[in-house]
Amino acid sequence: MDGxxxxxxxxxxxxxxMAVEFPEVAGHPNRLPFEGCLTLLDVPSDKAPSGARGHxxxxxxxxxxxxxxxxxxxxxxxxxxxxxxxxxQKCGIIASAHIEGKKLLVSxxxxxxxxxxxxxxVGGLAAGADDMGMSYELAEAHVADMRAPVWTLTRATxxxxxxxxxxxxxxxGTSFRLRKK
Length: 181
Hints:
Helix content: under 10%
Strand content: 35-45%
Order of helices and strands: EEEEHEEEHEEE
């Protein structure tokens, strides 16, 4: 594991990043690299995520920074309809995560050989991949005030992520795309 890297960027903005290094294997038939914006930080969700009892949520930057190590090695899943989560349909792994401004960015690998049906939707020539997004999966989330109309998450542990249509994600500002090998 590379561990945690922290550096000062332009105008005093800090960037935190974590990654697990996988050896490069040229032409690996079951490792298709991806990257995406998993969520936005300190911003209310566009709609209530699953498990939030109808409340929109704000994931604080502090909570995301503290939970960043929990993202590494977590699975990425999808549903055949691209409209939610299916934790039993694990199609990839998160290998790195970092915060850039208000974005929590991730990258990793999809298991292409195991899930060939995904390619036309997420990266084939005919795919409208611009409409794909991501959604996080959490456990042990702490809500600052359960009576608030918008829940503020001050602590959480990431347990995975899903690839879905951006319009179905709680945060429409998320993204997902394949990386060039």
